[in-house]
UniProtKB/TrEMBL annotation:
It comes from the Bacteria. It comes from Candidatus Woesebacteria bacterium GW2011_GWB1_39_12. This is Peptidase M23 domain-containing protein. InterPro entries: Cell_wall_metabolism_enzyme (IPR050570), Dup_hybrid_motif (IPR011055). One of its GO terms (molecular function) is metalloendopeptidase activity.
Amino acid sequence: MKLLLPIDPFQLTQEFGENPNMYKKFGLKAHNGWDIKTKYPDTPVGQRYIIAPQNVQFYKQSIDPPGYGIYFEVITKAKSLWKHTFAHCHSIETFTEKKQGESMAISDNTGNSTGAHLHWTVKKIKILNSQHEVQDYNNGYFGAVNPQEYVDEVRNYNGTQPMPNTNITIEGSLYEKLVGNSTKWDEMVKYLEISSDPASTSFEDVQRVVAGLKSRITDIQTQLGNTQAELENRMEQVSRLKEQVLNNDKLRGELIQKLSDTVSEQQGMVGVYEKRLKEIQGGLEAIARTKGELNKALLECKSQSTIEQLTIADVLVLLFNKLKQIKLK
Ligand SMILES: [Zn+2]
């Protein structure tokens, strides 16, 4: 049987069973699927069409911010029934069925994802008592198997491309019985604004309203995805601003250091000048003292010069002797 891969071109970035430590927090043995590259020159952000690998039936879509982000599930059929989960999406189309090769959604980077990629998990299921039952649920991956098993089964299976039909249908009589026994029916129908007369509300009316609600949920999920992307942008801006503030703080610290260095340098200079000033003052005092002694000596000389027999030469000798005495002190 022909098989298409969900992303074209197809390149794995993380294998099944890798990085056990990273997946412990999710209760998993290791990576529970395949991670597929979605960033290419024509989709630089990683928003690439997710293609139906076979004819698929829509099963579920939901949002899980700390894990899969925006994700959806479809059922395919080869020899077995398979349930596929595609995670970290940007948006999901509203559909109940898609033919092989048609696009189902657009990949992205929502949820627990460090970069844009498509996460693909496959589980083998069975229909049991009108319920989907995952096979080998306790295998450490909640039933997820290496997607290679699915790929091999489809490629080796000789059959036409079937549209899986796993709809759990409720028979008209059972529906009436359920409605008849329901105590909340009137309330629920009023809440859904289906009809003023709950008794005449048909199964189709309920289906139509629920389908409308489902598509509204999809819209809201898309909006949520956009908001999340914007939030991430804002967070990036905040961290950039934080970095700037830190840089400014560092710069301020450096300036303060430089200023205080300069001030202490100046204070050192003041000390040096004060010391010099003291030395100069000491010198001046010494000079003043010498000057006083010289004056005294001169006065003595003058008093002696009044005696007539002293010659000028004698006066000079006296003065010289006095000077010698001062020096000796
Ligand atoms: Zn993954």
